[in-house]
Write a structure and sequence with these properties.
Blueprint: E1 3-10, H1 16-23, E2 28-35, H2 42-49, H3 52-61, E3 66-69, H4 82-94, E4 98-100, H5 101-111, E5 116-121, H6 125-137, E6 141-147, H7 153-157, H8 161-170, E7 178-181, H9 192-199, E8 203-205, H10 206-215, H11 230-234
Parallel strand pairs: 1-2, 1-3, 3-4, 5-6, 5-7, 7-8
Length: 237
């Protein structure tokens, strides 16, 4: 049986779809709508969100079973609860269950019962400040935080998984109970298992958390996805 996943992503995102296809079996298909975005700034993200409802209606026409708003910074932009506002807006508009990336990350961290986290992002300071506030408001303590400082989303999409690995390894993460790699346009899935083995703690990326939250919306049995971290392997049941 083909299960249809709907994604709403920034127009310049080149990573989320390929990572989803790599993780999912042929039983799943991914149907994507795009909102215009070239630079990851607060102003651009807020403008992008204005397109969410129209794009969700287009996905509804394809008969998708769940819709993911695939943008970390865009779903935490306005602080605690912004993720829920977007989810409710999409669900009200098209009647299909919705998740946002930032909300999925919060739920994933809660699934591991952690509070102390270390974070890496590709973002500029403006967005990093908003992300720190979002996690703090949701009850998490950030023990260390590192970023590449990139504004152009196409450049973020060109970052290699090895660069994600190297940035995580630069963290002072001894006190952290989990690691979060932020941004749905940041390639990470090839290094998640390696990081978890070396750091001996859960490592969650934006795309892994979003996919996990979307699959959890299915009422029937859920796939067990191996090779990409504890969240998809252990927390889908």
């Amino acid at each position: 049986m083909n299960r249809r996943l709907g994604l709403i992503i920034p127009s310049s995102n080149t990573t989320m779809e390929p990572e989803f296809y790599e993780l999912l079996s042929p039983d799943f298909s991914i149907h994507t709508a795009r909102m215009r975005l070239k630079e990851v700034t607060a102003e651009s993200l807020a403008k992008m969100e204005e397109e969410a409802e129209e794009e969700s209606l287009k996905l509804a026409d394809a008969g998708v079973e769940v819709i993911g708003y695939g943008c970390t910074s865009g779903s935490l932009l306005k602080g605690m609860g912004h993720d829920k506002v977007i989810e409710e807006k999409i669900e009200k508009c098209c009647g299909i269950p919705a998740v946002t990336t930032s909300g999925a990350v919060i739920d994933a961290l809660k699934a591991f019962k952690v509070r102390k986290i270390a974070v890496v992002t590709p973002y500029i300071d403006e967005i990093n400040t908003l992300e720190k506030k979002f996690f703090s408001a949701n009850g998490f303590q950030i023990v260390d935080f590192k970023a590449f400082g990139i504004k152009e989303n196409l450049k973020i999409g060109k970052l290699k998984p090895e660069q994600a690995y190297e940035l995580v390894m630069e963290l002072d993460s001894k006190e952290a109970e989990a690691i979060f790699i932020s941004c749905t346009n940041f390639s990470t899935i090839e290094v998640i298992e390696k990081l978890e083995r070396e750091l001996k703690k859960p490592v969650i990326s934006s795309n892994i958390a979003t996919l996990w939250a979307m699959l959890k919306k299915f009422k029937d049995s859920k796939p067990k996805i191996e090779g990409c971290g504890k969240l998809l392997r252990e927390k889908l049941r």
